[in-house]
Design goal:
196 residues, alpha/beta, Rossmann fold, 7-stranded mixed sheet, binds S-adenosylmethionine, SAM-dependent_MTases_sf, transferase, transferase activity, S-adenosylmethionine-diacylgycerolhomoserine-N-methlytransferase
């Protein structure tokens, strides 16, 4: 089995079992997402692709507040892609992997913003995923990341590793040229921004 088939099979198994309770349960531990959406919405852009949109929760919030924007997603799990497509019929949700997916093809143009919300921690190859996203941004565009940081890594390690999740270390973000890195309370989560 290739790593892609292996990772997709894991994700589909996991989300088939949990997608019905996903949004309700994640409200209690995927912190910082709405702050990032507010800050994204304060910027000037018309095209955004979310990598790993999951149930489409973030795309739905963005669409409500910026209905004219072109929104898309690149999703590795068939189960989650079907879920997001049902919830966000106005979005284009393509199958593919963060590490090597053609992000520019999702909307047919390089997006001005790319969002990775609590998915970098799940990727098989985080370095390739960041490089791939930056390479596909429109000139002047930005990649935004929000994900688990140090506190989550310490407090929830057994839980996270059971679900193939690894907190995001700051040095990964700095090594890839993040221009802005900040942490939520007690360093539970990290928010980072990268230029194109
Ligand atoms: C924890 S969920 C987060 C969902 C959503 N971004 C949110 O903030 O609620 C992670 C999502 O990333 C997707 N995912 C995991 N690995 C991926 C990869 N290598 N490429 C693309 N999507 C991936 C999962 O299928 C899932 O939908």
């Amino acid at each position: 089995m290739t790593w892609e088939a292996d990772h997709r099979a894991f994700l589909d198994r996991y989300y088939r079992a949990t997608h019905r309770v996903y949004d309700v349960s994640r409200k209690y531990f995927l912190f910082g997402r709405d702050g990032v959406l507010d800050r994204l919405l304060a910027g000037d852009w018309a095209t955004l692709v979310e990598i790993g949109p999951g149930t489409g929760r973030n795309l739905a919030r963005l669409h409500r507040r910026r209905p004219d924007a072109a929104l898309g997603g690149l999703e590795a799990s068939d189960v989650m892609r079907a879920h997001a497509a049902r919830r966000c019929p106005w979005a284009r949700i393509s199958p593919g992997f963060a590490e090597d997916g053609d992000i520019g093809a999702v909307l047919g143009v390089p997006p001005q913003r790319i969002l990775m919300s609590y998915c970098l921690s799940m990727f098989v190859d985080k370095d390739r995923a960041i490089d791939n996203a930056r390479r596909h941004l429109a000139p002047g565009g930005e990649l935004w990341v929000v994900d688990f940081s140090d506190l989550a890594a310490r407090a929830m390690r057994p839980f996270l590793s059971a679900f193939h999740v690894e907190a995001v270390p700051d040095d990964l973000l700095h090594r890839h040229g993040a221009t802005h890195v900040e942490h939520g309370p007690l360093r539970y989560y990290v928010v980072a921004r990268f230029p194109a």
